[in-house]
Amino acid sequence: MQLVDLATSLVRNLEPETAHRATIQAMKRGLGVPAQRPPGADTHKVKLPVSGLELPNPIGLAAGFDKNAEAFSAMLGFGFGFVECGTVTPQPQPGNPTPRLFRLNEDRAVINRMGFNNEGLEGFVDRLSAREQGEGKVGANVGANKTSEDFVADYITGMKAVWRYADYITLNISSPNTPGLRDLQGKSALEDLLGRCGEAGKALASAHGFLPVFLKVAPDLKDVQIADIAAAAKAAPYLHGLIISNTTLARPVTLRSPHKGETGGLSGTPLMEPSTRVLAAFKGEIGDSLDLIGAGGVASVEDVWAKLAAGAQAVQLYSALVFEGPGLIARILAEL
Questions:
Q1: Residue 9 pLDDT more than 90?
Q2: Looking at beta carbons, which pairs linking 187-193 to residues 24 or more positions away fall under 8 Å?
Q3: CB of 305 within 8 A of CB of 13?
Q4: Residue from 174, 175, 300, 319 carrying the catalytic annotation
Q5: Is 73 a catalytic residue?
Q6: Closest by alpha carbon to 322, among 47, 158, 111, 171?
Q7: Residue 148: which of 189, 102, 181, 107 has the closest Cα?
Q8: Which of 103, 121, 227, 318 is the most exposed place for a label (fewest CB within 10 A)?
Q9: Which residue has the higher pLDDT, 59 or 10?
């Protein structure tokens, strides 16, 4: 892992998006990927009670790293218990103008305004369908195209495309970088989305077999919004869990980086406390009705335990890899 972490240090000298592309290309070629999963990767098994997902360990890779399902095998090799690919939209889209990704080194944080840049469902599904049987748990995070006239229809299109090839699906309605997307968290819009996607999920399950569906929400929610989302989620015809949370639009006064004023979603260490607070609030509303996956700011074994204590059955991380490298996963597993 020392060579991998050295490579991470070298890549950090590149412009952030260039570094990300270089990392994905290296992963696709197997460069620096361990020949074997690290100790502990398959000995901290957990089964999520509602979705039935059986994970070799509770540490997952959040969506955003492997947008086009190109490097999930490599990331599983570093020890992740599950990897979530995407966000993928029905049609390819370039995303927002560059620069759109910023490292806040002083704050161990990242701001992005990527805008669901991805190559679309066709290649995503081709790569996902070609994965080896039993190599690990891989989820598909689906979203809507920026120019779509019916966001919900895009989610259903995504569900239909990936259903037979993923281990679970996440409906991402909480990115702050697609105009109008977070409006889907509103009570009536969310009920419509969960109703239509739920009926589609029931039909797909009948035709192709059961597959868990999760909903990814924002951390920037008031108590009444949390209660409304929780009520809609519990009443949904086909939904098994929530991922809490996406990036935040908030800017804590403690931020020191010169990039702190950039537009976009903030992730990393400053998100740990507020996202965990929202996670605990959802647990209070939902109880054991749905599975909860905690995301936002996870960078250590202490952070993992904090998310689990707040009500999560599993966690996800991504931004910490920017600063710690993929060797972080082996270190967390060793301390679990």
A1: no
A2: 187/228, 187/232, 190/228, 190/229, 190/232, 191/232, 191/235, 192/152, 193/151, 193/152, 193/155
A3: no
A4: 175
A5: no
A6: 111
A7: 181
A8: 227
A9: 59
Q: Are strands 291-295 and 213-217 parallel, antiparallel or unpaired?
A: unpaired
Domain carrying residue 20: 2-335
Closest CA relative to residue 234, chosen from 172, 204, 191, 182: 191
pLDDT tens by residue, 287-311 = 999 999 999 999 999 999 999 999 9
Q: For residue 197, what is the domain's CATH number?
A: 3.20.20.70
pLDDT of residue 8: 58
Alpha helices in 209-318 (DSSP H): 223-235, 272-286, 301-309
Of 204, 114, 113, the residue nearest 155 (C-alpha) = 204
Distance between CA atoms of 178 and 190, rounded to whole angstroms?
16
User: Has residue 57 got a pLDDT over 70?
Assistant: yes
Is the pTM for the entire model greater than 0.85? yes
DSSP 169-228: EEEE---TTSTTGGGGGSHHHHHHHHHHHHHHHHHHHHHH----EEEEE-S---HHHHHH
Residue 332 predicted with pLDDT over 90: yes
Beta carbons of 326 and 77 less than 8 angstroms apart: no
Please give the pLDDT value at position 308.
98
Mean pLDDT of the chain: 95
Please give the tally of structural domains in the chain: 1
